[in-house]
Design goal:
By secondary structure, the chain is α/β, with parallel strands linked by helices. The chain folds into 2 domains: about 5-225, Amidase signature (AS) enzymes, CATH 3.90.1300; about 240-285 and about 325-440, Amidase signature (AS) enzymes (Alpha-Beta Complex). It has 13 helices and 13 strands. The radius of gyration is 20 Å and the shape is globular.
Amino acid sequence: MRSLRDAARAVREGQVSPVELVEAVLGAAERWEPRINAFSQLHAEQALEEAKERGDGSLDDPGPLHGVPVAVKDLFDVAGWETTGCCQAYRGHLAETDSAVVRRLREAGAVIVAKTNQHELAAGGTNAVSACGATHNPWDPARLTGGSSGGSAAAVAARVVPMAMGTDTGGSIRIPASFCGVSGLKPAFGRVDMTGVMPLAASLDTAGPLAPAVADVALAFAVIAGRSPVQEAPIDGLRVGVAGGFFAERVDALVLEAVEETRRALESVGAITSEVDPGDLSDANEVWDRLAWTEFASAHGHLLRRPDAIYPRTRRLLERGASLTAVEFFRAEAQGREIVAAFDAALGEVDLLLAPATPFAAPRADAERVDIGGGQTHEVNRGGPAWFTRVVNLVGAAALSIPAGRSPEGLPLGVQLIGRDEDALLRAGIAFQGVTGHHERAPAL
């Protein structure tokens, strides 16, 4: 389970059967689950039955993920399974059909073996708030995985599954990818069909894959987006702007060192780097707050009539969104357009931007604040992990989170590449991982 590509190749070449792969996933889950609590549902019998069907040799043209077991976040509809968003209020809600993403995965031959744990209704960046219980970081169970796709990141980091789907509305793929040391892609807005995915904020929601390596992410993205996979190719002349200003403030020095190391590695494989000022983004997180929580209340505000069925923190966010006036919402939209213009100007100078994914490494689960030095702190439960990710959702751009170093405690450090074109991001990520080994490390049980 160390590589989606290797698993698919092994099945294709007859080195292993789909049933053996599913059995390997179930065995790994049995060993890891008491430690990390990465799954909300594990459908062993159905997965084994599907694997037997995949392995009967009746297909003349098996898909690129033929017989490979994968997992999807609990927001994705899977026919006959509960879609709860790890919220007690939605227990018993059975999906009648597969979501568009799950349908594409199955058409490519994948076996859906499980649903992953997540922050309740995707409304947070820690994965500590969940009706399925908190997830725990495979590198250190006392640390957060990040969220809201924390179960997907944890399952991939522990190599229980070779790929898991997540969603990203304000960083929910990139934050856990950074904290857990895996690769995760947030596609540009509208690139992936979100039919059959429980919403957080429909104008900001996206879906994307998490996997150990960028090449695996590229294969999965090609499947869910219905396009040809990006291949390893030279990136000579690719213009990479190292984002300063907002992206270089309120961040741990260790993360900035990881950004600089990434810059040097990209230069070593042909990229041309420069410093880029993305403009005034100081209001980006506040603007995201007003837009996202208003839409969140529109989608799930009816749960305020059942306050005992949701966590207090989720209830407060719903109440906040429901209390915002139309004037405040439209003003936030106008501010958002100004941020888009500033970001477009920065991207007009380069092919992609390089920036921190999270301001710090995975904090302890009981931490309220993280000290990032210089007398500055971030609040863990009030947007701190998403400080550098939300703005990308506001502008609708694509972003790729990749592991780029380690803290003194051995925790992963993540950076993100940001751009309008997923292919450029994926090619740069593959080139980076071709000369570094951060993505190859996996936690021990």
